[in-house]
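Quick one: structure tokens for this chain, please?
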Amino acid sequence: EAMSAFFITQLGQQRILLPGAEDFCRRVSQKMPIYLITNGISAVQRSRFTDCPLTPYITGLVISEEIGHSKPHPAMIHKAMADAAVTDPRKAVVFGDSITADIAAANNAGVDSILYTNGAPAPEAEPVPAEADPQPVVAQAAAQPAPAKNGNFDDLLSSIEKELGDWKNSNT
């Protein structure tokens, strides 16, 4: 048990911030709330965001262990939408790096999605769970990482803006 507790504590201290992520979150948070939806152990995930540079921009954190369901189940997305007082799935977008977890969860919740590829080509079509809509909205980041400070996050912000427009003015 002591070894397990030590491992969870150490894992909770791990933070790998991608270049441009902080600016991306700052810019998105000026337009709409950001809810982080993550599979994982609550103690690890909450610890990771205690002193994280992204924390000021995150409105809420939805963790699978606390909800009782993991992605691709839609419950975590439904919880984030409820917390944000969003009832129209067209007013939400899931940004994720996994087709089988994030994009499938968005499909299962009836929410548009954006696949983050970190500059790599989008993977060929992967199987999507049967209950999911087979046509996810996927905006691929630039095929090669941009040398600019924000990398591919500018492309992703443009995709989010295109999908949702001005969330603050239209979410009533």
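The first strand starts at residue 35 and ends at 38.
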